[in-house]
Amino acid sequence: MKEKTITLLNGEQWDQAEIVERAYEDEFYYGYLGKNALSSSNIKKILDSPKTYYNLMQYGDETNSQALRDGRLIHMMVLEPHRINELVFADVSTKTTKKWKEMSAEYPNHILYTEKEKANAERLADAILKNETARGLLSDSKFEVAQVDHIEGYAFRAKADILKNNGGIVDLKTTSDLRNFVYSSRNKWHYDVQVYIYCQLFNCDYSDFQFLVIDKASCDIGVYTCSPEFYNKGESKVLYALQQYVDFFEGKSPEEVQEMLHDYTIIGEL
């Protein structure tokens, strides 16, 4: 049986099995594929503004923001605890101290966290692992499973936090307001986009996609399923974003892209 070929945004072609295997390497996944394959985060940037996506491609993203740092650490503690030794923890009061700067220089190839960040993440991870419902969602599963495939003819990348052996997907989220998670998922964070993309890439029905969410303050835990309306809204957003990608970026020279973005204007009435 012939291996499926994946055509990336830059026109390069890869055997699917080979590129999926490479996608388990963080540098390749976030670096090379980050530039040459779309993702739920890319689609959200395009929905925000084509300029936002352009700036991401040109200058990189704020991958070291506190929210992203916290999320990475909690994910690792819950899903990949064997990787904790890849991290370095500094016993400092703030990241402005001399010791923090010295340790940053001493460990340039490691992700550096404070002991306070570690304790915070341990508190949340402990709450998840002590919760019977959460443990049930974690059981009989594989973690951080990569996939690269086409959606509407465009290369997409994804990593499923928790891929159930029966084919379902569970995504681990943290929030500062669990009681508002339903609203923010739909209207702020565009998690419907993620559901649609992941269901397409992993051949999963939306009814088998769940969010496992922990409140960062209270440690309350919520589990949310997806309605057909949520999934369909995600599909509509993805298709709209892909059309924006075609209109602003596909087949355009850098000069053409910049000219179009200079003229990009939002018109409305108050």
Fraction of residues in helices?
A: 40-55%
Largest sheet: 5 strands, mixed
Query: Given this structure, which CATH class is correct?
Result: Alpha Beta
Q: What is the typical, i.e. mean, pLDDT?
A: 93
Shape: globular
Strand content: 15-25%
CATH topology: Lambda Exonuclease, Chain A
Count of separate DSSP helical elements: 12
Rg from alpha-carbon coordinates: 20 Å
So, CATH architecture? Answer: Alpha-Beta Complex
Number of strands: 9
Uncertain runs are none
Structure commentary:
- With 270 residues, the protein is of the alpha/beta class.
- It has one domain (5-262): Lambda Exonuclease, Chain A.
- It is 49% helix and 20% strand.
- It is built from twelve helices and nine strands.
- The strands form three sheets. The protein has a five-stranded mixed beta sheet with strand order 5-6-7-8-9, sandwiched between helices. Strands 1-2 form a two-stranded antiparallel ribbon.
- Strand 5 and strand 6 (154-164) form a beta hairpin.
- Helix 3 crosses helix 4, helix 3 (40-48) crosses helix 11 and helix 5 crosses helix 7 (115-130).
- The longest helix has 21 residues, at 228-248.
- 24% of the residues are buried.
Identify the notable features of this structure and list them briefly:
270 residues, alpha/beta, Lambda Exonuclease, Chain A, five-stranded mixed β-sheet, two-stranded antiparallel ribbon, 49% helix
Write the layout of secondary structure elements.
Blueprint: E1 5-7, E2 13-15, H1 16-22, H2 26-36, H3 40-48, H4 50-59, H5 66-79, E3 87-90, H6 98-106, E4 111-114, H7 115-130, H8 132-138, E5 141-151, E6 154-164, E7 169-175, H9 181-187, H10 191-201, E8 209-215, E9 221-225, H11 228-248, H12 254-262
